[in-house]
Structure formats: C-alpha cells, structure tokens
Predict the 3D structure of the following.
Amino acid sequence: MSRLCVLPETWMNKRIGLIKVLRKRPVATLWLAALLAAYPASGHSMSADKDALLDALLRQMTVQEKIGQLRMQHARAAPPSSTELDAVARGEVGAMFTEPGITPAQIRALQQAATQRSRLRIPLFFAGDMVHGQRTIFPINLGQASSWDLDAIASAARVAAIEGSADGLDMTFAPVLDISRDPRWGRMSEGYGEDTYLAARIAQVVIRALQGPTLGASNSLMACVKHFAGYGAVEGGRDYNTTDMSERRLAEDHLPPFKAAVDAGAGAVMTALTSLNGVPATANRWLLQDVLRRQWQFNGLVISDHGAVAELTDHGIAEDGQGAAEAAFTAGTQMSMSDRYFARYLPSLIKQGLASEQQLDAAVRQVLSTKYDLGLFHDPFRRLQAPHAAVGEAQRLHRAEARDMARRSLVLLKNHKQVLPLNPHANIALVGPLADNALDILGSWHASGKPGHAITLRRGIENAQAPDARLVYAKGANISDDPLAFALLADNQMSFDPTAPETLIAQAVAAARRADVIVAALGEARGMSHEGASRTDLNLPEQQRALLRALKATGKPLVLVLMNGRPLTITEESQWADAVLETWFSGTEGGNAIADVLFGDYNPSGKLAVTFPRSAGQIPMYYNHLNTGRPFDPATPSAYRSRYYDIDDTPLYPFGFGLSYTRFSVSPPRLSSARLRSGQDLRVAATVRNEGTRSGETVVQLYVRDRSASVSRPVKQLIGFEKLLLEPGQTREVVLEIPQSALGFMDRDLRPVIEPGGFDVMVGLDSQALEKASFQVMP
Ligand code: BGC
C-alpha cells in the first residue's frame, strides 16, 4: 500500500490536484508536503485536520519510532556530531533540550536531519531555559514580581519569546511557578515569591505573552511551566529534598498558579524532581492524571525534569531502570528529558503488558500535537528564519524594556533623612564586590545573555552623574573569602581578588573619606541563589559585613545597594546604612535602572513579593499564616504565646512593603455592601492620595480575612491589587471588584465552599499597615 493511501478519503478527493503537482518529488517528501499543504498554519485548538494528520502519522509509525518521539535529547552549543545527527535521522529523538549559546545554524542542522533524513520526516522541537530572558536579561523573577506590574512583566516575557524564537527555540522551560516561603532554597530566586494570588496573576500574563495570540506564530514560544508540584516547599529549604504537606496546603497555596497557567493555555508542564508526600512528582499518578488531566482538563504535554525518570531509583520507588520507566510513564510523564529510559525500556514494558500501546499512542499523539500547535509541521524552520540574523548581537537587545522592568522591580527598604535620591553633582565612593560586576548582575539562568552587554552599577552611575561629579571605585571585599565553600555550586564563577582583606577594606575606606556619600553594592554571587544552592544562614558573607561596618565608621552617608536572589537577614546592616535599596539581580540594564532610582530619575515603586525575616531561625515566615490558638500580641506580651522569645516577633520587612520618594495615604475601605447575599460580589473602594511633592507609583493592596469558618483561615490573604501613578497632591479612587468566589476555600473534605459569616477586608500599601472594614456573607 502506498503511503498516500493512509490519507482520509474526503481529504484525498479535495487535494488530488495538489498531489498531482507534487508528484515528481521523492515519495516521502511528497507525502509530507501533501499533508502539510492541507493544513493551515496552526492555532492551538484540536481541529479535524490536525486529528487527521496525527492519525495518519500514528498509523505509519513503528513502535520504535513512536518511542523515539518521547525522548528529549540534550543538544550542546556546538555543531552536532554525526552520532547525534544519525540518532535523529533514525527517528530516535523527539525534541531537543538546548544549551544556552546554541546557534540557529546548529539547530537547523538537527532539524534538517529530522525532516530530510528520518523515515517519516517528523520535525523536532527545541526547548531551552529562558527563565528571565534570552539575550536581553530581565531581573530575576523574584524581582519582577516585586514590581507588581503585570504589563511590564508581560512585556519582559514577550521580549523573551521574540528573542528566543529568533534563536530557533520553540519552547521555554518557564515560567517557574513554585511558591516558596523558605529563602534558604536557592531557587526561590526563579519564582514569583511567597504569595499564591500574586504568582497566579503573573502566571497568566506570562503564559499569554510567551505564547502570543497563536502558538504557531514564528515569534511565539510554548511555555513549559515548572516544577509540578510542591518543589518550593522542600524540607529545610535544601534543594531536591522531600516535600511533605497537607493536601489542603497544596491545593490552596501551591497548585493555583499552575491551574492559572493551564487555564491560560500553557502548552506543557514539567514535573518536579522532588517527591510529594512520598511519591516523586514524575511518577505521581494523582498529580499528573487526577489533578492535571481530569480536574483541570489539561491537554498539553508533560515532560520530566532533567534526569527525573532515572532518579526514580534513587527515590526508592523503582528497583531498576525498567521500574523507573514504568513508574514515570504509566503515571503520565510523556516525554523524558536527558535520559534514555523510555527508549531503552518501553519496548519490553509494552511486550510484557506493563505499559499499553494505547498509552504509548496517547503520549506520542501529545508530542505530535505539540509540534503541530507550534506550527512545525507547516514549516519546521519557521523559527530559524529571523530577518535580523544579520543584525549585530548588541542591536538585537531590548534595552528600553529591560531598563523599564528593572527599575520597577527595585524596592526601597529604608531612606533615613531622605539620603536618596542622590545629587548628581555629589562625589560618590562606590564600593563593594557587586559594584562593577557584569556577571552576577545577570542572576542565575541567564540563558544567552552576555556579561559584556550588561550595564554594571559603576557604569550606570557614570552615565547618570553630572560631568563635574567625581566617582571613586574600590572593590572593598570579595563576595566571599571562602571560595572553596562555593566550589561545588552549579555556577561557581566567582571572581576573587587575592589582595589581603584588610587592604581591600582600607582602600574602600580611603575612597569613602574623599566622597560626599558612599554607595555600597553588596550581596550574593548569582550562583548562591541558584539550583543546588541552599544556605543555612541568610547573612551577608562576613567580609562584606566587615566592609560595611568600616564604611559606617567613616560617618559618611551610607547607601546600601543589595544584589541577591532571596531575602537576606540584614537586621544589623539595615541599621548601619542610611538607605537600603533591594535590587535583586537586575539584568542587562541593571546598572542604569539602579542609577535611575539612586538619582531620582525614577521614583521607586517596588513592593516585596516575599517576607524578609530577621533571622533564618524564623523561617518559614510568611504574611498569610494562621492565627494559632495563642497568637503573640506585642501590646500585651506574655509567656505561653506563639513566638520566638529571643527575637522581635515581626519580620524585618513585611510582604508587600516598599518605600517611595513621595508619601501616599490610603483611606479606610468603603464597601458596596456590609451584608452580601449568597452569590453577590463585593466592591471595595479606597481613596489614595499622593501627599508628597514628587509624582510616583504605588501598589494598593487588598487583603481579606474569614474570621470564623469550618477550618482556620489565614490572618489575611491578598485578593486584589492595583498599581497606580499619582502626581503630587493628586487623589484617586481605587475600586476593586471581589467576586464572591474569591472568598471561598477548601472545606474539611477538601471541597470548595464559601461559608456565610464575618469577614474583614483590609486595604493598604503593604501587608502590615492596613485600614480595615468588615462585612458579612449571608446564608
Ligand atoms: C532544572 C529545570 C531545568 C532543567 C533543564 C533541571 O535541573 O530543575 O528547572 O529546566 O534542569 O535545564
């Protein structure tokens, strides 16, 4: 039977003319070309045409070819070897996980092997980690979340999609939707902070921005959201450790950002490396089938994390490789990243009836469907034809968007006696290991971003200072004096100055003495807030603390610019410094953005997306905790109350906190009704006023508390926010609509309910300074 005979009959009749035209081409090309011509550039929906194509392909495929589609192979940033190309040509690979720096030419060679040499010409798809940018690096996501600016975050994601797709990539392993309340975990830097509602709102805009109006567009990227699920709550903040949590906490706090992403159309989900309540996520049938497929109706692709299938033996749920492949595949992991377990073991699993052919076909159909949605059957080279290929690398950067996002992500934590903004004519001593550091400012996962393109703080200040002003730079300290401690980090490229530590400090102090003001850029190396980089304490490394102490002793005004990927316990440092600006790892345009804020060209508007504890011993510390039966009240202190007796019970900086160069006031909330009928929504209004003399943006935050319910509810929970710009003296009315469904929770049987009773609604500019009103939900 000729290959053409597999086509549906109606289709055959309609396309016969076209097939005649193509007749002279080799038979396989003819077959595929004819198929492709039949289908329009794809959208994301399952069309009849798409079904016909996938059916036709599945009928043609051998079991080995099908299994090949389930393998995501590692592609290095190097010309592919003949071994790699031959494996692709034999149909043993379905997709490629690409290293940063891989070129479109290298991707093209691999795609050619698939589409010109493999029997069925099925294209590959190419994925990479564009976690906060591809070439233009935006602030780390913890910083982006601190902007509370959904438009700016969406614009950053769109740029990543434009740049990533122009580099030949089809999918990004992003966004990271792990909720984390443990800053010891280095990967907190990759996510959007501690709050479920904020992360879910961000997830939705990021998915839409990455995937664009249609996934098939040449500048759209498929989002592979990760890590499903519970990874952000690893015990003790130790990376890859076990997660054990109640189903309620999982459902209410950790799953909603993923659900929001699925609802927004995310095309793929990556399983977590970790286990959840004893069952590794990659082999967790309940997560992958009951929750993801049945409850949420997810119809995209499930990919394992890197090596996660193989690691199932270490997790102790499989005796050997075959057991690992069986556990992952039958649970619902469809494609395995960077191991050969499916390729090696699925044939025998199927022969023995331990995995079914129907399961295999379903997984393969999903992979093919992903490729179809990405437009790859229509044109496998659609993301390899960027017209700007000839344009210089630097010209391809989106600097304006990066600077805008970066300055919105900066959080002013302290500004004693308005030491900021700086006078552009002031003589500045700029010190610290991060002050002139183009590598660390990019943060972890900097994809194809280049330090050579990054604006350091030193350059940013030079760009902003008046011509008559002096800038004296001194490093003052290494990031750490113990590079050996960091030798095992995934990213350990820490630059080390062998000058004696006392000499470095003396040079910095000498520079400080000659200046009007000191700007000290201190914090972490990017590798310290990264995968595999957990910490037991959250202090600034000791030598940096010594430097800051010495600078404080000069008596000069002292501005601390923090660069780090997690909250640091800077209780003392925040007292030594007159001003503290949290800048995270702010990306390619970081230096200019920080200078914009330091000199007042941009009025800071960022608000923390994560609580800053005073001590690592307070972890987990998060704003939406339960009240307990014995809450501590500092107004009436007593023993037998829930607190640590050796430390101030409050956070150093609360969730939602951030200062501005102007002052804002917020009125108590006014409610559309104090008694809500069942099903009736609530409207909350508040008056916000800029009381100062500069225009500025702030974030009005709305929290709710269910005072009495069948299960204990958090002391407050974010359910709405609005970022707004106010001119000096301007007043604005903010109105936030709260659907009654937002007042719901999981009852004792984990069914969603909205219970009648008393609620508090709180409005303010951070999670602690709030104005309150109350209302009732009627039965
Ligand atoms: C990480 C993922 C990442 C993958 C590929 C894994 O170690 O957990 O987040 O996408 O590597 O780089």
Summary: Residues 403-618 form a domain with the Rossmann fold fold (CATH 3.40.50.1700). Confidence is low (pLDDT under 50) at residues 1-29, 38-46. The first helix runs from residue 9 to 22.
